[in-house]
Amino acid sequence: LSKAERLRLLQEEEERRLKEEDEARLKSEKEELERLETERAEKEKWHRLEVKDLGRRNVELEELSLLEGCFPEAEKLKRDTRALSKWKHYIQCDGSPDPSVPQEMNTFISLWEEETKETFEQVIEKSKLVLSLIQKLKLTLLETPSCDLPDRTIEHHQGSILRLQELLHLKFNIATELLLGHASTLADLDSGNMEKVIQDENVTLYMWANLKKNPRCRSVKFSETQIGFEIPRLLATSNIALRLLHTRYDHVTPFPPYPVTAPVEQEHIPVETEPFRVSQAMTEKAAPAEKAVTLEMPEKQGDQLDPTQERGLSLIQEEEAKVEAEEDTLIHRVSVQEEEETTVNKCELEMTLLSEAVSTAQLRLIENSLEKPEINEEKEVDLCQFSILGGVYHLDILELPPQCKPVKGWMIVEILKDGLQKFMYPPETHEEPDPESTFPPIEVTLEVHENVIFFEDPKVIRWDDEGKIWRTDGISNIFYNREERLITFGLETFGPVTLIQDTHINMPYQSWELRPLGMNKVLLSVTTLFAEIQIHIKGNLCMLASVKLRDQEHGSHLEGKWMTPVPFILALKEAGLNIFPTKHSHFYVVINNKARTSLSRFTPENRPWALLMFNGDRAQMLRIREDSEVFSEALKDETEFHATLYHMVKDFASVEAMDRVRHADCQFIDSVCHMLLSTRVLTYS
């Protein structure tokens, strides 16, 4: 190309570049103006909605406070139910004590302490009543508001629970001693040793007595089970008995202290004082007139009255009688009115106190502890991080008591003063340990209870009676057979052992859903990494609907059993289905900081899911969808702000739907609220 052509091309390129820059600049300026205009319009719209929201906020909050009146009403019904339960127990007259009456509990415990010849079967049968009393006392402490539980009552209940637990275990020891005293009469014909299995829904006893002391008999397996021991030669040749007492409950771990709150000071309502004051005032007003008439009468009594004076006096007396009648009627009306006002004031005060108690209990469900529990020893188990499941296995090596002997038709047995004695293994010695004398761990095989779900292999821990803590040391070679639900491990010293699982294994939740099924019926679904748990809530009752483990149905003994929320939550925890955070859970679960913002899905009239957000101050419907890639607080078109989620939903819900909400049963609302606060799905999802 020539120089002129190159210059021309360069000039055209420059002109094109300038033109494109001008177009880009104009486009950018136009977009900026449009953006500013959009922001201005959004700000104006936001300001109008805020003004409108502030204008009706007081009305909405007042309406909400009226709706929240269902909680103290539900608590009042619970109080009536507790009173009715006590009355039913009183008229039942079945001989069992009322656990809420300390005198009856003391009498029951004292009488049972005097019975010393009960067999193991008799103790197991009596344990059903004892466990029922303990459960009732625990539920009383958990369900009763603090305003209805004085400190003295709490101490009595906790003391009764502790005494019953200790006495029940003592009775099992005494019954074991009686059973071992007749071990020779129960010896197996093949092995020559005694083997006994006694099974109940709450307790199972496995007993083996070494009568032959055969050094080759080192494997102990109870018939028709895989449960048993592999014992060393020292025990195989000793005069001992092995006891495995499996209790489905845990009476070893000290129960946590009851959360005591400051009592609410009740105002004194004088029921009879106010009417008396009104009557006294009316009497004082009438007193001067009566005194004047009384003073005038003696002056006239000495004189004889003429007929005119008699008629006048008669008229005065009639007027006085009318005035007195009117005053009596007025006093009666004022008294009735004051009594009615006093009754109303008492009801209002009662509901106010119940409302404060309910609020305190609800806040306690969602409170977070500021300090993490301290673990004093290295091998100590943190019971805020782990949960005990399947009860406690009491493993004991016992000295075999003297056996009964038949003499001329009589059975003679030596009774030891010190009772049942434990055999020390390894034996205590003050000499230097001999390298050739080893005391290997005892191999133990236990069966995991079928009603407990372990999502991972269970951990085995042992009880340190001296330190009153659970420990992980002294246990080795743990092997878990998931198919047969058998766990085998080596134990250095015998004592209570149990199985634990991470309390927060199902947290945080992957998702949750609350779906209505009809009037006063909902289905709460919580999906975790390992399971999907569905809970029916109907009225004041809850029921486990289904459990899916890895997309497969898993049958549970709790399915089909309706319970009130508190015992239902306890039953789920004992079954291993723990979806209930505690005040220490935030130390063990990584949760997102939602800055007091809650998101809820809501579908009105079979329309697509809508996202609602509530930040503690304002509720709004979001423009984004659940599958949006970026979160935005932008308000959905043609929607407004509201003070509560209830009023937010009210904008687009049908009349029939809102009518169901307003007429829902107070106990149903209380149960749903209790389950949502207990699962804390908004925080741990």
Automatic annotation (TrEMBL):
Q: Where is the IC97/Casc1 N-terminal domain?
A: 16-216
Recorded hits in InterPro entries, A to Z, give:
IC97/Casc1_N (IPR031826), IC97/Dnai7-like (IPR023247)
Q: What are the annotated GO cellular component locations?
A: axoneme
Q: Does the keyword Coiled coil apply?
A: yes
Report any Pfam family annotated for this entry. Casc1_N
MF-aspect GO terms: beta-tubulin binding; microtubule binding
Q: Does the keyword DNA damage belong to this entry?
A: no
**Which residues are in coiled coils?**
1-46
* UniProt keyword terms in alphabetical order: Coiled coil
Give the matching PANTHER family.
Answer: DYNEIN AXONEMAL INTERMEDIATE CHAIN 7, LUNG ADENOMA SUSCEPTIBILITY 1-RELATED
Protein family? Belongs to the DNAI7 family.
By what name is this protein known? Dynein axonemal intermediate chain 7
Name of the gene encoding the protein in the UniProt record = Dnai7
